[in-house]
Amino acid sequence: MSRRRTLGTTKKIALLVSAAAVAGGGAFVMASTSNAAPTPKSASDSTVCLGLATALSNNQKFIADQRADPDAQSEARIANREAVVAEIERKQEASGCVVGESAQDSQTAQPSQPAESAAESAAPSDPAQSAEASEPAESAPAGNAGDGAAASGQQVCNGSTVTLSGEGGAPAASSNQFPVGTKLKVTNLDNDKSTTVEVTSVSGSCALLNNAAFEQVREPGKFLIRRAVIEKVG
Hints:
By secondary structure, this protein is of the alpha+beta class. It has seven helices and six strands. Helices cover 44% and strands 12% of the residues.
């Protein structure tokens, strides 16, 4: 009788140890799964990532253009835009996007993408510039070829998507077509929000909003305005 009890106790201990090992292994697998980093989203998978990739592409092109044809202010502009690039990359990481992906990267990876998204991904290299550089003139009114000479109240930058420069400060815009002091009204047709800002600096795009101005017209969580109307109002 005592031998049976001893064997029974030994078996029970062995079973308990085995069960603990199995449970521990399952917990380890679950922990490993839960701790696995999610795969970053590319610009083709997310509107947020596309907007950030476009902004990054625009700033990178602006820097490249300044280095290719420098002037007395190029060094300061490049330093400012390099800080903007770093901020955009931080936003990419925080948003779960591929860090360092630009609009050109996304376009190269998807040669068969629809024409509409291709135009946006091709946007120039100042935060909005790439889109405008490759976009066809979409029902542009007569006399719109030179936006800088457009009359007050005339729609300009036709067919352009709008994104942000990543620059701080009071609401403002930058442009490669309008002189400093020009006032532009930007309307987001997806939410009917608009802002009127003054051009305060040069960029590589027709009209580019800084962070404060972009916040006034953006949709929550988005870094790209696909349907925008831009008017010269002063």
